[in-house]
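Students often ask why we bother predicting the structure of a whole assembly rather than each chain alone. The short answer is interfaces. A chain on its own may look different once its partners are present, and contacts between molecules only exist in the joint model. In this exercise we take two input lines together and write out one structure for the complete complex. Read the inputs first and try to guess which parts will touch.
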Amino acid sequence: MRIRGFLITLAAALLPAGAGAQTATAPAAPAASAPATAAATATAAPAPWSGSFDLGVRNTSTSGDAARYERYRDLGSGLFLEDARLSREQGNWLLDLGAEHAGRRDQRYTGSVERPGKLKAAFMWDQIPMLLSNSTRTLFTGIGTGVLSVDDALQAQVQAVPSRLAAIFQQNATTFETRTARKIGEGAFEYLANRALTLSGHVRRTNRSGTIPFGGSFGHSSLVELPAPTDHDLTEVDAGAEYLRGPMLLRAGYTGSWFHNNVTSIAFDNPFLATDGLTSSSRGRIALAPSNSFIGVNGFASVKLPRRSRLSAYVSTGTLKDAGDPIIPQTINSANVTLPLARSTVDGEARTSSVNVTFVSRPSRVLDVNVRYRIYDYDNRTPEFLMSQRVAYDNAPSLVNPPIPTEAYGVIRHTLDADVRLIPVGGLTAGVGFTRIDEERTHRIYESTTDDVVRLTVDRVSTDWFTLRTKYEHGQRRGKGIEEGERELAAIGEQPGMRHFDIAPRNRDRVTILGAITPVADMAITASVAAGKDDYLQSLFGLRDNTHRVYTSGLDLTPTEHIILSTSYSFERYNALSRSRQANPGVQFTDPSRNWATDATDRVHSVVASAEVNRIAEKLNLRFGYDFSKARALYQYTTGAVVDRTLPEEVVVPTTLPTPTGLPPTLSQLGRGTMDATYAVTSRVSLGVSWWHEEYRVQDFTLDADANPDLARGQALLMGYLYRPYTANTVWGRLIYAW
Amino acid sequence: MHTAIRRWGHWAWPACGALWILALVTVRAETTADAPPAIRVQSPATATAVPAQAPATSSQAPAAPAKAPASGPATFIGDKACLDCHEGWDRGVTGSPHARAIDPRTPAAAQGCETCHGAGSRHSDDPTGFPVKIFAKMAPDAVSGTCATCHNRGEHALWDGSQHDARGLSCATCHSVHDPKAKVGQLKAASQPLLCATCHRDKVAKLDRSGHMPVREGKMQCSTCHNTHGSTTVKMLRRGESVGEMCASCHADKRGPYLWEHAPGRDGCVTCHDPHGSSNERMLVSKPPILCQRCHVATRHPSTIYDGALIGSGASPSARIYARSCVTCHANIHGSNHPSGQRFIR
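Now the answer. The structure tokens for the assembled complex follow.
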């Protein structure tokens, strides 16, 4: 089936029936240098038709989690067409056709037809698989639909003897692939009506279908993981006109985006219960993503002014709307009667608008001025909906008095950026900049925040052997209206001293240094340091601070015209301190002896290395690559005061909490070695061999197999989407033909 | 300065100072040079094989403007005359878009080499006395200004004042006319991630994490989300007017508007997710429940310590930490249209 599909696709791809040049490249493919050369040659070739193809046989062997190895790609064994290109230049027209991974789950076809200087039209068909697991198991039937069922008899058995769940699961669960796939069709054109006016259009339709792991629990002791259906379409239309004449550039654009979800709710059986009851349900129902649309228009004007200055203004406005699907009922539990809903549809709507004015000036050789003012308004007009009755987990309804209204989050953001840069001597620049971000938000604990940022840059960008870029920035964000916010936090049972860190008052300091040295033309050495700290100075609880340090280095070497060597190493360290208080309602809520903290540290080492030796005896190209990433994370609990980082505002008291047991460190390590060799048999024909070796190692205290020894455990029924290690090898035998 | 900065930066400042002394010394050396050495014409392949910020040639000639001709302006002499001396420099151009003579906007349809480098008659007579434009030796804005005489619309219209322009990058920092390494875009590296890694190595390194966008698989690239030539929105994003709108341009299932919204999800996907990649599931910036506990400090289970005794391999595992942790129950974490969806359970 796969081979037949491949042959049909190959034939179709070689027919001059499409169009399209897609700018996306496939860096992950074992790209030997020969095809690239061939493609470049093809464009220039005087022959009517030129092109290349790269095909052959592939074998993949995997031990462990094969799904993760092929998460976004299809490396299955068998015939493959890695890449095919076909080009023709005739008269004033250019035609390009391309196919990648034809017949595979990650196939892509492109085409373009162009009359340079007049018209360009392109299309693309692309598929992006996302394979999450090929070993997930479930008791549910109806996978991929909006109704998931468990055999009534099995439900009854579990209800009668809950301890039999594991045995029933082992005997009856079916294994299925958890995957989704995006299928994207795209067309675009650009038409130069005259030297000043360009018209463009772009249409894209994306279908995503499959299943994803999703929660469908029935309470804290009835946890259920579902294979939730994913079946939706996204249609996007963009159109624009651009007029350029003299110093003036004008642009107008339209954007339309329609999202349609074919399954906006999912009903599912309760594996633990066969019959509905007043306090528990045999079925559950959950809302999925709503269908919606976004329509927007925008305009842009830019004018060149004297003294190398430019003034630009951009305006856009749009409307995001819910599609009007009815709100699903409170519960699917037949044993309960619920109050009528406040209304039957969401009526969700938000207006967005944005204004951006930019002034850039270089009045002299030694001075740059750059000022930008921006307004962004997300005006959420979704009407308030009162929840006067709550039905949690499709269980017993409870009255909510007073009713809780929904909160339509909106934001107005004003941003002013102003930068002045001095260029006293050749290549040396010193800049100072200021940014103010004023935000007014609805329904957040701060009514408004102001973030002031000052930055200093000193760069040495020259044309000789040494380049250095440095930047330091200090920011202070402060908020207003927290008094009301603290009352609201207390009302919902949160600690009043907690601050949501995305809007909390914060001091930020960051420095980056990036240097490049080119001692000789064939060698480049780069290095960078970045460090910073966010200090949430008013957050008694929640994220207290985070820091980062990143060091990178790289060496690129071209000792001869035929040899290219490249290597880089980077180390990243991220740390975050979060404060909390373990408490039940009552006196514990205000008891500081129950404070604790999480100190989370991530350390990542990355190595990327490659070596190319080309045109050995004018016939052989070799390429070796090695990527390595090792990420470790450690989450440490501390009770009581945090040594050396205790807040000045905090009252330090001896802890009354038991000493926590340490969490094991997590590990995520990926190593990948690649080798490509191509041998030019003739000027048109090359033979190649490629080999990939990939190893993934993982330790994760929530998601690895050790942490999840049984999928049916106690009062939980999971699917088994887990982190598992793998070792994989893929070998290609390839024929590359270019003409 | 804050004590915290001193803690992490105690050695970074001396290092920075030392680098700056080096920078100033080299600037001094450059500006006080007595006379420019003669131009050394190199093979283009060798000269531009170094990455982004490296000069295309090792020539020490200054970027002096062409002298006014003694009698009349310089005139065009044609590509052949250029290549008589600069042999091989047409290799990378041939077959590239710049060489398409059928496109009236290309150099090939105009004056060939001299379209960009300037008329060459006087340079031909006196190469050192009348240097043509050598982009590797020109100031960044002069380089970009030359390119922008043609590339001044569409993708490139917002270059002036963009973040890259403001930090002294030029078109030639990333693109090579004479020796491109990529199949498209005339890039100086074989792919966008390799090119962008020259400066943004930390971001590119994240593409190798277990949770990542399909960039290394070739289904996305840096320019899928970013327009490196400038944009009207933040972070040089290509679409939308905010980070959230950019993400929702593909993940439209998350854009609502919902009846019940998760506040950070409305305008700050990056509060919880790292779009460049992370070692956590779904590219989260930290592991649940620790991530969720950064904001949720309510009584009972949100503020409980989920320590080593409660993990899945422990004696009494808690369902709030193994598998999907918080979102096993709070499944609709981005928002819900369920009438009781306040806590995103349904």
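Check your guess against this: Strands of chain B lie at 260-261, 335-336.
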